[in-house]
TrEMBL record, chain A:
UniProt name for this protein: ABC transporter ATP-binding protein
Species assigned in the record: Kitasatospora phosalacinea
Family: Belongs to the ABC transporter superfamily.
CDD domains on file: ABC_NikE_OppD_transporters
Alphabetic keyword roster: ATP-binding, Nucleotide-binding, Transport
Automatic annotation (TrEMBL), chain B:
InterPro entries xref list: BP-dependent_transpt_permease, MetI-like, MetI-like_sf
ABC transmembrane type-1 domain: residues covered: 90-277
Membrane topology according to the record: Multi-pass membrane protein
Pfam families: BPD_transp_1
TM regions (residue ranges): 29-51, 94-116, 128-147, 255-277
Protein name (database record): Peptide ABC transporter permease
Protein keywords: Cell membrane, Membrane, Transmembrane, Transmembrane helix, Transport
Location in the cell: Cell membrane
The organism of origin for this protein: Kitasatospora phosalacinea
Primary location class: membrane
Biological processes per GO annotation: transmembrane transport
Family statement: Belongs to the binding-protein-dependent transport system permease family.
GO CC field: plasma membrane
PROSITE patterns found in the cross-reference section: ABC_TM1 (PS50928)
From TrEMBL, chain C:
Annotated ranges, domain ABC transmembrane type-1: 95-300
GO molecular function, one term: dipeptide transmembrane transporter activity
Pfam families named among the record's database cross-references: BPD_transp_1, BPD_transp_1_N
Principal location class: membrane
Name used for this protein in its record: Peptide ABC transporter
Record-stated family: Belongs to the binding-protein-dependent transport system permease family.
Amino acid sequence: MTELIDRPPLADQPPSPTAELLRVRELGVAFGERVAVRGVDFALGAGESLGIVGESGSGKSTTALALLRMLPPGGRITGGAVELDGQDLAALPEEALRAVRGQRIAMVFQDPMSSLNPVLSVGRQLDEALRAHGGRRPRAERAARAAELLELVGVPKAADRLGDFPHQFSGGQRQRIMIALALAHDAQVLVADEPTTALDPTVQRQILRLLARINRERGTALVVISHDLGVIAETCSRLLVMRDGEVVERGATARLLTAPEHAYTRSLLAAVPRLDAPSRAAGNSTPGAEPLLVVRGLAKAYGPRRRRSPALESVDLDLHPGETLGLVGESGSGKSTLARALVGAHAPDAGSISFAGQPLDGRRARREVQMVFQDPYASLNPRLTVGRIIAEPLIAHKVGDRAQRQARVAELLEQVGLEASAAARSPREFSGGQRQRIGIARALAPEPSVLVCDEPVSALDVSIQAQVIDLLARLQRELGLAVLFIAHDLAVVRQVSHRIAVLHRGRIVESGPADRVVTSPEHPYTAELLAAVPSLSPATSGSLL
Amino acid sequence: MTTISLPPAARSRSGNRSRNRYVAGLRTWRGVTGLVLVGTVALAGLLAPWLTGADPDAQGPQALAAPSGAHPLGTDDIGRDLLSRVLHGILTDLSIILTAVPAGALTGAALALLAGTSRAADLVVQRLFDLVLSFPGLILGLAVTAILGPGRWPVVIIIALAEVPYFGRQLRAGVLVQREREYALAARVGGAGRARVLLRHVLPNAVDPLVVQGAVALSAGVFIEGALSFLGLGVRPPEPTLGSLISGSVAYLDTHPVLAAPLAVTTALVLGFTLLAEALNRGART
Amino acid sequence: MRTFLFKRLPSGLAVLLAASFTVFLMLRLIPGDPATTLAGPDASPATVAAIRERLGLDAPLLSQYLHWLGQVLTGDLGPSYAIGGQVSELIGDGLAATFQLTLAALLLVVLLAVPTALYAVSARRRALAGALRALTTGALAVPPFVTGVLLVLAFAVGLGLLPAGGHASLFDAPDLAVQYLALPALCLALPSAAILARYLQDGLERALGEDYVRTATALGVPRRRILWRHALPNALPSAVTVLGLQIGQLIAGAVVVERIFAWPGLGQLIEQGVSRRDYPVVQDLLLLVVAGYVAVQLLTDLLYSWLDPRVRWE
């Protein structure tokens, strides 16, 4: 990778961390009547890095957007100041603000796919960023600079790729391009709002490294917003913890991780699964000796006949009753294809799935194998009541009459920790965690013996994550379920699984007891995955800096 | 066992947020204006027998009479009472579009669902829509009239046929999107058969855009009826329709401005439907 | 381009072929065959049979169809039944007039719609944007036959500025031709211009609410430039599709407009053909319109894929 600096601005004179480059005073933001952020107050020196962490609804992203006065429609800054070098951005006229945005303070957004213009080439977009400030530079000079920027953020063969469009890049590369745009004018402050949320752990690690390198080598002050404490702990030297629009705790990252003062910070830290904590699955249930579900040589390919791309090459799996098998893989590894094949949603091209010694056909699969989905919003039919959603499998399998089904729904709701009265309501009225409970109740309705959980907690806040994991553990204990727990987060998987299997490009590259796979991985890919997991140990805080 | 307490009961009874959005759309100035326009015109048509005693087809002694007590809007070029003809014309138009549009919508929806059953069916249905759409607007009308001749039913068939691909394509697109949503997979995993997933889960979530299309289609229906009548290929005389009234009055408009009444009524009706479509569309998008 | 050549072009041709067969079959469905119509009510069965044989109506359907396709491909369409003269000549006479009319209307559509949409989106004064919106709604709500009548009343009868109807050759008397063209073209263009303006405005508004516009704003790109260089390229592809569909409406609308303004084009011809049951004329004109429209659709698709790289690279 090339050096970051084309004209070393700060190589000889390291930034003084005491200088107040960005000073936020008593910032308040409201959407209509609803207060989203109140009394946020912090200072950032040149070359410093600050993390803002919080769960959904904490106001962290709103704070980030308010720094550039880029609130979505309906939002307004109700008070306070955002001073950049003494200049209050919150009070600046629009044209003066435009001159600051992208030049002195820049932003990297969460979803690089939607944040890049789909019909403009990457070169054009970089060019747009370059010509937004600083007079007219000749076209050739801008093109050279655009290539330089792209190379800077680690896009291979940068000069050749300027004519390509965003959809021709991978997710990680798109985020790199976003960062290149933000770097166009060597801004003093870079605000990154959930910069790695949709990315795989290994890609996430690369992006975080890049941000840290920019911070270190260019002296760009960094503000990173994330829901993931691990992400922030490794990239930022100082932390703000937000909840309900307010800062509840602030301090040096190492201190916050070891000695949190506020009860909320403590509970947040406690809820984060640790990779170094041993598996708790053995204390939960003991798997049976005979495998319940046996998968052999499963293969599946997608696409038109000529250019089929394999999603699963050849997968062998055993799942025992009462066992939780953790299946780890990044996007494109084939984990969702595997899950869908197991529940009979599509037929595999080759291989066999047998259940209790017999081939698993569609009808049997639909009773014995049920699924819990990732997205608690998309997986519940918005047109049906909760009761009807849970009763649907019962109706489909012609179980009981109306009254019996009603009683069963009430029983299931209580089993997953919801009131029976929830049945009459719409799923819209429930939070993400509650919706996930509804999804679990639906999966339990036909009394399955296998539960396939496809990323069941990755869309949830950490505190809610912990609750749903506890629920799944309890259900396994009570019902003796076999669980296939699919996730990308190794720490969660280790915590809940008896065994772990690692899926990579449609093949299981490694499987074994959960603790063994994590502590002494045999396959290099497993080791790579493990190295990418952000760590919360104070020893590694700010390790990327 | 711990039970998580539920959020306080939401403002409205479950499930129908999308319905409410349409209602909210209708409450905007566009929606209200549209409702008032359509409502007034429709009511005038429905109450025609009570609003006027005159026979719309009876020819009086005086052609092109000025408005008077006996003829509030005067008479047309062959001495028929204009008010009565306008009111009955509204009735004819309404009866035509209210037969044709639902028929077109249902046929289109049925074809879209058929397309949802298999790849081959999808291909056939799509080409069928393409075929109908390859006769643009009024040209389709002329083609059908060439076979069936002018008349009331040909007009109904033309309007219905013209709307089939619009409803069908929209529903097909909706079905394709909704079918890939996780809740549809969940229903399938829960044991529901293909037909049940399509009809009970996917369809209710995909029909919403058809509401907007319905309002658009109603205004298009008035357009098509009018254009066909204007060309003398619509409903057979002497039955009054808005289009034939306009067509008949054109020649005398510069000397007898009151003959602009059918023109104004048609415009009000179409404007009403257009505003309703816009209001519903905006409601759906917010 | 490859996708276009291998997928869209064949499916366009398939639609065209299906449409030609439909048109052919449709006109054979009519009760009472053309020969009876042509021979007149008092003709003897022998005369009818003779006519039938002369027209090839006693041949099997498929061979009749193929014969017709052959005629279409060679351009010799045979005699008309009722209007008189050779169909090829009738169509030839009207084609130029209709082409002038629709092309002028198409130009007007683009010239009216695009600035309106851009202006409505960028207008700082909300009232102005609202007024433009109301104007487009109004243009949408008035059927073309009404607009036509109103235009004639206002410009021809009232102000006496332009002729109420008629046609002059563009080559012999250009200034007169433009005067004759102005009202019908405007009348034809208005509804389509309103629809295009509305779609483009909606597309621009949607694009302006997208994340990539937020990115551009955060980079300090000026507002005007965001509209022109970031939002417009995203709104353009679907606007082109709408424009393609509106060309169909222009062709269809020409039938009515030509009637109002006594414009001697194909619209008049097809209308006469339908009302006088001149089947060769109707059949050939329908095929011509469908062929033209399918070609327009293909061009639109090509333009779309050129404007949207996501389609281009598939």
